[in-house]
Prior knowledge:
This protein is of the alpha/beta class. It has helices at 3-6, 9-18, 23-36, 48-63, 105-112, 160-167, 184-190, 224-234, 278-293, 309-324, 342-353, 356-369, 374-395, 421-425, 432-437, 466-480, and strands at residues 43-46, 74-78, 116-121, 173-178, 193-196, 216-221, 264-268, 297-301, 401-405, 441-448, 454-460.
Amino acid sequence: MSALTDLSLDEARKGLARKDFSARELTRACLDRIAAATPLNGFITVAAERALAMADAADARLSAGEGGLLEGVPLAVKDLFCTQGVLTTAGSHILDGFVPPYESTVTANLWRAGAVLLGKTNLDEFAMGSSNETSYYGPAVSPWRAAGSEERLVPGGSSGGSAVAVAARLAAGALGTDTGGSIRQPAALTGTVGLKPTYGRCSRWGIVAFASSLDQAGPMTRTVTDAALLLRAMAGHDPKDSTSVNRPVPDYVKALDGGLKGLKVGLPKEYRADGMSPEIEALWARGADWLRAQGAEVREVSLPRTRYALAAYYIIAPAEASSNLARYDGVRFGLRVPGRDPTEMYENTRGEGFGTEVKRRILIGTYALSAGYYDAYYARAQKVRTLIARDFEAAFETVDVLLTPTTPGPAFGIGAKTNDPLTMYLNDVFTVTVNLAGLPGISVPAGLDASGLPLGLQLIGKPFAEDELLRVAARLEEAAGFSARPQEWWTA
């Protein structure tokens, strides 16, 4: 086990600045570890040559005293971000061979800050899934195992490969996207930190779209400090994205300092869902006690429309996916399956190129948008979405942040829920509300269940209050003292 790959993002950044080691040495250590972790299937593409070239360039800048915020730090990128000259698949057969001629804004921001691209991580196809099992390239596998078991577990989804890269120490940090919990849920299942910023805080330009009004890029790291660093480098206004908000990017690392005295924390009573694991409920209570012990005032609040959130989400997200995925037809890029005429070619390409879950959501979304059903389903779901946002606004009149569980339980076995889509969708019950309301949310590892698997707690903040959210998350992280890491069964 390399000591270099054990370094947090912040520790690696500082070590590089002190010249304790070179960016090439650090990058080489990560690449070697990725090669040894093949059983985890965390990466779709490893960009080894490009990574070493970027590391050499970073070393040259560091030697000249010109290093950026993330100079020489090796990162993994979810394969939903377009990366110029590097295969981008969205985890789908239909994008076979697609090498973008352009760079997404968020990744371009990271490369300007000096970061190094290790490769593109596995994900649920087009980010549609909660377990990373819908990927055309096979499921990513969690580095965690339950005590006394050899069952392969899911890392969560859709950003499962990025979660694997961070939890297994394959990268100092990773990028994910979050449409209904796809950063926070895998972070909770793998004992890592996952931050979904406010909608509009990070540009969506160059990210393969799933649901345009819900998607948001965010950092996945091992510590809250690392998330603050990565978000600072990622965020910023982008004129190419009409939903990008033009407001200053705070120094999120400086914002981590400070206590919680006088902070008001809300516990949404509707998040006590039927069938919630007693361990999750106990952890939630401990989290409230940790914040209370640091001077915060904890009180119960109500988000009465929470029970409608999953239903609204699973109408809005598939409807937007149906529209966004209409562009994949075999004509301009990616897979093409011949036919006797253009219509048959479209049908053959989409039939072979899309997986079962993507087809399911396209069908649901197309139905919800069809004549005669638009008002009954899509328009009504949008009205419910507005009411959910108003619930949060009302709650934030009396509290500063909300504390909730991130997931209903720990990681489950690969294949355990694939034949029951509705049960799979319930994994997002605590996270989809944040996307519907456009709010920031962060999952912090807070404990282990009885079988030794990670559990996370979620903090939800006011719009563009990531600085406050990160400060509270840092105090929660300190109180939890989570230091567990998976045993390295995959290298045996």
